[in-house]
Amino acid sequence: MPGPGPDGFNLAAVFDAVARAVPDQEVLVWRDRRLTYAQLNARVDGLAHALVAHGLGCRTERSELAGHESGQDHLGLYLRNGNEYLEGMVAGYRARVAPFNVNYRYVTDELLYLLTDARTRALVYHAEFAPQVAAVRDRLPDLELLVQVADESGRELLPGALDYESLLWTPCPAGGMPEQSGDDLFVLYTGGTTGMPKGVLWRNDDIFVTSMGGTPFGTSEPFTSYDAIAEAARAGDGGMTLLMIPPFMHGAAQWSTFHVITGGGKIVLPDDVRRFDPADALRTAVRERVISIPVVGDAVARPLVEEIERGGYDLSGLAAVNNGSAPLTPGVRARLLEALPHIVVMDAAGASETGLQMSSMSLRGMEADTATFTPVAATTVVDDLFTRVLEPGEGGGWLAQRGRVPLGYLGDADKTARTFPVIGGVRFAIPGDRARYLEDGRIELLGRDGVTINSGGEKIFVEEVERALAGHPDVRDVVVVGRPSERWGSEAVAVVQLAEGSTATDADLLDEAGRHVARYKIPKAVIRVPLVERSPSGKADYRWARAQAVTPAG
């Protein structure tokens, strides 16, 4: 294949290059379903043909648009994990339609907001979600194509909807298929756990090079051609096998998936994709001899390591546990390395608006410093006023990314300008994380400014306090939020889920926190809940936690 055009790499063309290079290698395994690259590529072709045949595609080229604008039709992926999610993504790019992630936990009003904001033209959804789709479809004037994926719910097709599998046989349209571009959009909606979800618009080329395998591991220079990608896939010899526990609707899961694809590797899904069952996940890992397991903070890693500690799992082939998108506390990391002393634990930091920014690696007896990372070359810290880039050792400011950053937020010119400012002639992404630039060039991540608590004039970074409380052995999960206070303006409150049968008192929990953080950071109250609610990806739901803190149940 030739090199990328002047606009760079397109994700559909990347997948096609790999599929042609290693057609018979497996790309996705779920239960008894084992799809090779050639098989999945053929299914992608059929779905892409169907999208084009229904009149979907690119209407205005990127060069004629502002950063917050899209000239493409948008395809919502309202799906649990399965081959259909990956097929829907790649088929969208192949048809020059922009796929985007839909949170399957949203209630009617949230779903309506998201699909309206995205100006959704087509929606692929699992049959179990048919009632939710039926409740909003008549209020979505742009929605023209409904594609229903059969599942165990057994729900019948909605009136006017098309069966997913039947579309995979669609022949190439008479007018042919469009020529894909590196300028085509990769759209990722933020989780909406601190506010309304926002559609982040990336160019295919930029997100691929920064976060989806376009820069070979251990190097700083991206691939130069599709042929080079194909050669890397052949050289990988199918050796990389990854157990995908987080949902594909989460950006980091999509990034990890394409990293594996670029190396011609295999994605394995646990049998149960409706809920996280650590025993099921580990049985799958053993059966498929997985090399890597991504986790999302303690919410996934803690139950996983507890199951490993019960014994009975041969994980001698596992090389790495990769954590991202939520903090992994030192205690849980240490337990992982004790239970699996031969692995490395990789921690990565990044955001929907930045891509992958920095990482750290821990080995048994050589654990990385908490919340401290080695940045990639494009990651830095800028001053509070967004006027200059700090030098190592200058202290605190805003975590920032420069160079290959998103175009903007869909439909929001003002927020695009605020989040992606130009400093010294260079465009940056500054989504709101506070950080400290250390003298040795590493960066200490303090936390998202939007959930930082200003208490009596002191800033409290909630993730730091959450880590402190999680040091207590009885704390299963914890989220720290601020609530109004007459004395302090705002005060920290811990919403805590304790281990079953725990006799720990509030004082015990706060004493543990006091061993790790300054006195003014210790929560003023502890609210106990039977279960800390998180997003399906494991991220803290701060809106839910604030509601518990202000009006606790019972």
Measure the end-to-end span.
64 Å
CATH architectural label of one domain: 3-Layer(aba) Sandwich
Q: How many strand units?
A: 28
SSE-based structural type: alpha/beta
The biggest beta sheet, please?
11 strands, mixed
Estimate the strand proportion.
25-35%
Question: Which stretches are poorly predicted, pLDDT < 50 over at least 5 residues?
Answer: none
Number of helices: 16
Overall pLDDT, averaged? Answer: 93
CATH class of one domain: Alpha Beta
Radius of gyration: 23 Å
Percent of residues in helices comes to 25-40%
Bulk shape: globular
The CATH topology assignment of one domain is: Rossmann fold
How would you describe this protein?
By secondary structure, the chain is of the alpha/beta class. Among the domains are: 11-23 and 33-211, Rossmann fold (3-Layer(aba) Sandwich); 375-448, Roll (Luciferase, domain 3); 452-550, GMP Synthetase, Chain A, domain 3. The protein is 29% helix and 25% strand. The strands form six sheets. Strands 12, 13, 14, 15, 16, 17, 18, 20, 21, 22 and 23 form an eleven-stranded mixed β-sheet that branches. A five-stranded parallel β-sheet has the order 4-3-5-6-7, sandwiched between helices. A four-stranded mixed β-sheet has the order 2-1-11-10, sandwiched between helices. β1 (26-30) and β2 (33-36) form a beta hairpin. The longest helix is centred in the first third of the chain and has 17 residues, at 37-53. The termini are far apart.
